[in-house]
Design a protein that fits this description.
4-stranded antiparallel β-sheet, 4 helices, 65% helix
Length: 186
């Protein structure tokens, strides 16, 4: 019998090879496509996530700005109150120096001497007192007490002036002294 030529079998072999190549190419293409799709989806997800984070950060920033602006008046009040307290503290310190000096001299002079006038220049720290007494001898004792080394050590130079007799028979004397920072702390 004649040999049959089988064209189909040869064709099938060739098709099988082509199919295998096509299948490899399809596998590579689908893997590449899947990787690209996954990369795209990851990138898209990251983009949404980062936009969400930026939006939240901006909202928090706006809220913080609103809180700061809302508390700005409180801060201004605190700054103003602090400045007022500093000024009051300085005034009380100056008054303390004046009051301490007056108390000191009232004790030194005794009950027979009246401190009639008081003038205190806080910026220059100069205290001027006008003393009044019914007896010249009491003022003489005051004069001696003011010349005492203890008083001079505490207050430095004390200027005594204007010893005058008034119309009622009493005597007036003016003293001026400069207060230093350490005068009243001794």
């Amino acid at each position: 019998m004649p040999k049959e030529i089988n064209f189909i079998q040869g064709r099938r072999k060739k098709l099988t090879k082509d199919q295998k190549n096509d299948f490899k190419i399809f596998k590579i293409a689908s893997t590449t496509f899947a990787i690209l799709i996954a990369t795209f989806l990851i990138t898209l997800g990251l983009d949404f996530f980062l936009k969400f984070q930026v939006k939240n950060a901006q909202e928090k920033q706006i809220d913080m700005e609103k809180q700061v602006l809302a508390k700005e008046s409180v801060e201004q009040s605190i700054v103003i109150a602090t400045e007022k307290l500093k000024i009051l503290s300085e005034l009380f310190e100056q008054r303390y120096d004046k009051q301490a000096s007056i108390n000191y001299f009232s004790n030194v002079f005794g009950p027979e001497v009246l401190i009639k006038d008081i003038n205190y220049e806080a910026n220059e720290r100069i205290l001027s007192l006008r003393l009044q007494s019914q007896s010249i001898f009491v003022l003489e004792e005051v004069f001696l007490k003011l010349s005492d080394p203890e008083v001079e050590a505490q207050f430095g130079n004390i200027n005594k002036s204007e010893l005058i007799r008034n119309d009622k028979g009493g005597y007036n004397m003016a003293i001026t002294l400069s207060l230093s920072e350490t005068d009243l702390q001794k």
